[in-house]
Amino acid sequence: MPQGRPTRIPDDGLTTRARRNTAVLAVHTGAGKGKSTAAFGMALRAWNAGLDIAVFQFVKSAKWKVGEEAAFRQLGRLHDDHGTGGPVQWHKMGAGWSWARKPGSVADHAAAAADGWAEIARRLAAQQHDFYVLDEFTYPLNWGWVDVGEVVDTLLGRPGRQHVVITGRDAPPRLIQAADLVTEMAKVKHPMDAGRKGQKGIEW
Length: 204
What we know:
- By secondary structure, this protein is α/β, with parallel strands linked by helices.
- The protein has one domain (19-194): P-loop containing nucleotide triphosphate hydrolases (Rossmann fold).
- Helices cover 37% and strands 14% of the residues.
- The protein has a six-stranded parallel beta sheet with strand order 3-2-4-5-1-6.
- The longest helix is centred in the middle third of the chain and has 21 residues, at 106-126.
- It is globular.
């Protein structure tokens, strides 16, 4: 896509403007670092454009300190107080299924994930937000806690111009096929390979 120009123009009956304004479904997957970080970078651009932002974290613990969360909450307050950017909501959907051991059975966690997806589907149907980040959402999909087919059908049928970005390893093939934008993060090197633990300002 040299100089931001598409390599081909599809024969879809749409004008250039209509095609440009089509809602985007993006997937950030792969074993490398940066999937969520890239999604939050897109959300930052969307906030600056005045879009209504909603972040749903599916796997990280409710106690896990995420630097982007603090920043986006401040941006949400900036919008509420001064009208700058767009409104922001940030939701932690569960009890830290992969990052920390929490009370409750697998069935409890699966039910929480299903409830979280049901809430997102409700908001999509109502066109409640403009830009959604479903962070680490591939995990409940791969564990069978949320039905992939239902998710894909809901996303493909979502009304209006609602952008959705999904992050996490091993994105299901059906989700990849449905997406407009797919990026696979490949690890080349990582400090943890040399025995170094995650650090503030880099991992969180």
